[in-house]
Design a protein that fits this description.
heterodimer, A: 316 residues, alpha+beta, Porin, 2 domains, 5 helices, globular, B: 126 residues, mainly alpha, Cytochrome Bc1 Complex, Chain D, domain 2
Chain lengths: 316, 126
Amino acid sequence: MRLKESHIQQARLHVFRSSYHPRRKFGRLLSALFFAALISALPSPTLKAQEKPYFVTYSHDLEEPGNLEIESKTALGQPPESHRYGALATELEYGVTGWWTSELYLDGQTTGQESTLFTGFRLENRFRPLMREHWINPVLYVEFENITGADKNMLEVVGHDGQADLAEPNADTRQEHEHEAELKLILSSNLKAWNISENFIAEKNLGHEPWEFGYALGAARPLRTLGSGKPCVFCLEKFTAGAEMYGGLGDVASLTLGDTSHYVAPIVGWQLPVGRLSFSTGFGLNSNSLDRVYRIGWASELPQIGTWFRRNGGTR
Amino acid sequence: MIRRTLGILCLFISAGLLLCAASAPRWSKIPAKDHNRTNPLASRPESISAGALIYKENCGQCHKADAMGDGHKKPGLRSDRIKSATDGDLEWFLRQGDLGHGMPSWSRLPEAQRWQLVSYLRSIQN
């Protein structure tokens, strides 16, 4: 027993020493300095007007060509008889052209009394096929996901997704690797000051699993449509409010609104001088859904990042 | 099964790209009803200052603060083309964008703010 204790103490000491090793500390300092220098050298974030504060629904707004938007979306929830969790999706969105936007998502989550995990990545592309603005504007969305079963971001609800999936322990779900392709048909309209968006989702696990389906609907409007002409933080035109609704539609074998989860979520977006803050509380609509899902988002945009890289050391 | 999925994916992407080949909106294609529209906020002097702020927040990053463009792909906005365009033309162009040539659609802005932007663009032509 004593021998075991001494082993444990030695191991603890080793962990302590290795984490506070002077060389490692210097390395961390260097990396911190590098990132600080990079961030200060990058073009300053810009204020963008009237971005939609949706968390799950997509509108037909694409990223402006050459701009990079960095967005974090946090989802907080607690399945019944399980631990609280917080999931974070970090999104890098780049406007390749006026009709094509490409995105990379990095997902992670932490579950109380369990663990903190990196749960995978998603690559997505959105194409706007019609060059003109119409009453309804379609956008085609293609995504590849490489995530584990422990992902709790709920960026979409498909198939028979439910609260039971979120209650499973991380130790089990992290072993499930999911390679999935996802297609979305995004339909969106800007009517007067309102944006109304409808998304139809088809997702396929590239293993031998059937196609699963889901939907997301959203409506949002700025609280004031006329610009005041004064730089302000709290004026009404800086706030956008609305609601979104999303849920699963079953799979190929059983298209259904039952045996899956559905949520309705009021949303508020606040445009600040350096980015956009958004909040939402999702309310579960049936017994398969979580009671509540709280979401917080922060988005900041780096303008014309491609031009900046070309100007600072690249080639034209 | 994987082949079929990949096939569907390719079809989906190809359909998107083919549709993208559709021609972009240009000045010559502006419908008469849009061409003839007048700026409902033209008589309000404050709409120029409001438009200036909207320009700074949304347009200045490409067209530059002085609206002279970048000398390459992003054109200057103090030009004969803007001068000769009607208010309706400008509002239509802001709403439609020119996606094929990198100009996003500003339909995301409420219509009132697009008209304020038109007021500002008019004011910088002299």
